[in-house]
Design goal:
alpha/beta, nine-stranded parallel beta sheet, two-stranded antiparallel sheet, 9 helices, 11 strands, 42% helix
């Protein structure tokens, strides 16, 4: 089982002046420990349960650019991009830039968006849910077109691009992987079956997460898609306890998730900026999960 680290809280000792150093240290330790990928949230305010909106939050693609410069191996992504926060052509360009400057390590994590409060707060576009899903599908198609040899126009219901030129092109072949976040059974998992290379399903309840995979399997059958082509990512939280008392329980829970068919455990490490917590993660959790 691969391990991903989701960095979702930037309220650390030292405040903003020390943040870049602590973020670099966390990323380097994660890479050294064998983490397969690192993600950040695409939010502009902090979200529950991490804390109130006033806590520190970095803009996602600027942060990923910093991490690209500081690391050499880990894959980099948002978990996940709110589709309506950026025009799809610009999003494809941002992912291309990340992919080129990271040496081909970018993943597009994308979803339909949900945080209306931060959107209204900063004046970001936030249409009704049905429209957000329509825009999600079109944005994925635009990104795929921009990462191909086709630089012709795109004329959708919501987006109209006169020329999908993208230079330089991505280094990832055939293109950066696409991960669709969320576990909605009627729309999200159908879009995963139709377009995605990876899903992202919350795995707090292993049995419920396994049921979601059954739903995805049926969507794949309906779409004529090979279910086994899709990487199954379990979104979780690594709450290891102040003295590591939850380590074994965490490992056992994720073993159950792996038995259900998930191949990536991706989550926030509670206390990620504390050396002792990271030691528990690096020395006990990652080696155990790699055996699944």
């Amino acid at each position: 089982m691969k391990v991903g680290l989701h960095i979702s809280n930037f309220t650390w000792d030292g405040g903003a002046a020390e943040l870049r150093f602590r973020l670099t240290d966390i990323a380097l330790r994660a890479e050294q420990a064998g983490v397969d990928r690192i993600s950040v949230m695409d939010h502009v305010w902090q979200i529950a349960p991490n804390g109130p909106p006033e806590l520190a939050m970095l803009e996602a693609y600027t942060a990923l650019g910093w991490l690209a410069a500081k690391t050499e191996r880990v894959k980099l992504l948002t978990m996940v991009t709110a589709v309506v926060y950026r025009e799809p052509g610009l999003l494809a360009k941002a992912l291309t830039t990340l992919d080129v400057l990271s040496g081909g390590r970018a993943i597009l994590g994308i979803g339909a968006a949900w945080n209306e409060d931060e959107s209204r707060g900063l004046g970001l576009f936030f249409p009704p849910l049905a429209e957000r899903f329509e825009r999600l599908e079109e944005a994925i198609l635009i990104c795929k077109q921009m990462w191909s040899d086709d630089e012709g126009p795109f004329d959708g219901k919501h987006y109209h691009l006169a020329r999908t030129l993208n230079s330089p092109q991505v280094l990832s072949r055939p293109r950066p992987p696409i991960l669709i976040g969320g576990s909605g059974e009627k729309k999200t998992l159908r879009l995963v079956a139709r377009y995605a290379d990876s899903c992202n399903i919350f795995a707090v309840d292993a049995k419920e997460a396994a049921r979601k995979l059954d739903v995805l399997r049926q969507h794949c059958a309906n779409e004529g898609r090979d279910y086994n082509e899709i990487e199954k990512t379990a979104q979780t939280r690594f709450d290891l306890g102040e003295n590591g008392e939850n380590v074994q329980r965490t490992i056992e829970g994720l073993h159950e998730v792996a038995e259900s068919g998930f191949t990536v455990a991706h989550g926030s490490l509670i206390g990620v900026s504390k050396a002792r917590q990271f030691d528990f993660f690096a020395e006990r959790v990652i080696p155990a999960l790699e055996k699944f």
